[in-house]
Each structure stands twice: as C-alpha cells, then as structure tokens.
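Example (one chain per record):
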Amino acid sequence: MWWSCRAEPAASVRDMRGLKRLARLIWGDEVEPAIRPLLAVGLAGSLGASSLWSFMGIWAIDKLGADASALGVALLVGACLAAATGYVSGHVSDRVGRKPVILAGWASLSLYVLLFALVGDSVTLGLVVLSGAGMAGSIGWAATQAMVADLVPRERHEAAFASIRVANNLGVVLGPVLGGVLLFVSWRALFGGVSILSAAVFVLAWRLLPERGAFAPESKPERGSFAVVRRDRVFLLFLLSTALAYVVYVAYESVLPISLVDSHGLTPSTWGFLVILNPVMVTLFQLRLIKRLVHVPALTKLVAAMLLMGLPFLLLSLSSALPVVALVIGIFVVGEMLWVPTSQAIAAGLAPADLRGAYLGAFSSMGAVGFALAPFFGLLVRDAAGDTAMWVFFAGMSIIGAAVGAVAVQLAYSRRFTGQPREREGSAAVSSPAPPDLQAEPALVADAAAAATAGVHGDEHQDGNRHSQPADPQRSARE
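Predicted structure:
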C-alpha cells in the first residue's frame, strides 16, 4: 500500500514529462506564449468535432436510410449556411469581442448535437438537422482566426496560424478513434459524448482565453463591414483565388477517393490507410516547413502551394500504382501545408484592423464554395470525359487560382508601396485615396522604403503600421 502511494506521484511526473516531450516534438520550443490557450482549445475542439463529422454520412445513410443524392443536397445546404454564419459571426466578433462569439459557438454546438439523438428514424428531420450542424459548428471559427492576429504581431501570423492548424489536425487524427469507441455503445452515446466534450471545450475557452489581445483594434468599428468588403477589389480578388484553391483542396477529400476506388481498383481499406498520411504529415512537419521557409515571400509561397496541390493529380493519368498515389498525396500535403497558413496570414494582413473578424469570416466562407463546387464539377467532368479530363480540370483550377492569387498579392503590395492607404469604406481600387486617420493592417510589406530595398515582394515579416494597444483577442481552421 505505502509503495503504491509513493509510486503514483512518480508515475504522474513521468506522464507529465512524456506529454511535454510529445508537445515539444510536435510544436517545438518557439510557440508564442500568447496562443498556447488557443492550442488547447483548438485541440480539444477538433477532437470533439471530428468525432462527430467523421460519422455523419454513415449515420445518414445506414441509420436513417437516406439516399446519396438527398445527403448531397443536405451537405450543400449545410455548407451554404456555414458560409453565411461564418461571415456574420466574424462581423459580430468585431463589435462584441472574439471571446463571447467563440463561447457562443461551443455552447451552441454542445446543445445542437443533442438534436441528433432526438431525430429517431425520420429521414427528412435527420437531414434538416444535419444541414444545420455546419452552421452551429462555424459560429466561432472566424472569431478564432481573428484572435490569432489579435494576439501576435504581424510577422508571427503565419507561424501562429500554422501552430493552431497542427493542434486542429492532431485532434482530427484522434477524433475518429474516439468516435468509434463511442459508437461501440450506440449512436446516442456518440451524440451525448460529443455534446459533453463540446461543453468541456466551452469551459476550457472560458477559463483560458483572454478577453483582449495586445494587437487587437483599439475601438469597435463605426462602419458596416459588408460595404467595405464589397468595395475592396484586392481582397475580392484574393477571395476568388481562395475559392479556386478550395475547389482543388476539396477534390482531394471528395473526388480522389472515388476515382481511386471506382476507376483504379483501390480498396476502401487501402484508401483509409493512405488518408491518414495527411493529418500525420501536417502534425509532424507543418511547423518545421513554415519555419524553414519563413524568409520566402508570401507571393512565392502562395503560388507554389497552389501548384503543388493541383498539378500532382496529373500523375494519376500515367499510373495509379500505390507508390504513385502515395507520392501524389505527399506532394499535395506539402502544398496544403504551405497554402493554409500563408493564405490565412495574407487574409489577416489585407483586413483593416477594426474589421478583421468580418474579413476572416468572408475568407473562411470560401471553404463552402469548394465543398459545393468540387464534387459537382469534378464528377460532372468525370462522367462526361473520364478521370484524366477531371484531373486536367483540377490542375487548371490550381493554375488559374495561383495566377489570380499572385495578382491580388501584387496589387496589395502596390497599394502599400505607393503609400496609398485604403478607402474609408474599402479599397475600391489600388489608387483610391483614403482619409489619413484610417490605419490599415499591413498587408505584405512594412512600408514603401522597406519595399524599395527589398525588391518586388518586399519583406512580409516586417510590421509596418501595426496596432500595439491592448484589445480583444480570440482564436481556437476545417479545416
């Protein structure tokens, strides 16, 4: 008895040391202290969310008996609702603060998940509930992204977004395992367990997340965000590039497995093994890649990332051997690891500080465009002309998206280089004048002088006209 009493603390110490070593292996020693609470919330949140989302299609088809077309419509409606909710919640976070919106998101999801347990065997009701689930899950997403920019300086945005993404992907790796364990009991156990876990994330966010961030705007916005976004042509161009990138990104998740299994004879179990490569690679190499390329201009990384995501699909037209499929996945994930934090940092840099939540809400809503269009157009092309034509289509989308993104980034640079700030109601054009009292978030270069010495791309890691007052922080991204 006395031995076990003395041994337990020692075992606890060893466990803590093991967890610290694991955290150091994944995140290293350079994680911003300010975002560590967001890492905890992001990991716990993605664990619970992926425990649910991984099994929703199975629940709709096997448990309710819904047909595939009805499920597709429900998912499309859900994506549209999630996109609208993401923008609106980001807009609200600019006015009430990030933390209240994040808390509202987790509280809503905790309660909403219980509706699945009340559906019974009704297919229609089940699909309606499924359509609204994405809306409940997206309430705090834009506020969470905006909190990253509220908590860390401009030059650390990309690394901070990458750190949060690693936490989210680690949760995605573990979530389906937890969901499978709960399903050993019943579907009700899964829904109840996810509800409890979401409530626990609410408590965690309430206890850990700060009220304000050191780099948040000093005051609430005095203008409507929609008019500003609508007139900001540079940002709209970047949104178009992001939508095209999401079309390619979603093709990996939705179209690639269909092609490999249906056209190339890959077994579903083999695909289940291959798909794990994505979150594992992100967890282990995301931060190392971003750190290695920290001095590479954002424009170069954005273009390279989008091409690496789309062009490797063309290899499948030559061979579908397992090593080739693994190579395609590996190259795609490298592009994905470059694209996600780089595009998030660019979006945060293009946003006026007082409308950061709304801008990032509009940015994150482009994911719904990808989820809506990638399966629709991809499978349409496949049915009409075959798999090779489909991969040519997605490769073309990546090339067009890279070109449009490069133009947007170059225009953003030109706006900073010429010293012409944004219009009070949005950057309607690069040459638009603006009131001198309106401070714009530094986009890609610090100032004209730095840009002149740095070359075309400038140094995206300088901070320029950065807000350093205390303010409202938040950030817990589907992915």
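Caption: The chain has 21 helices and no strands.
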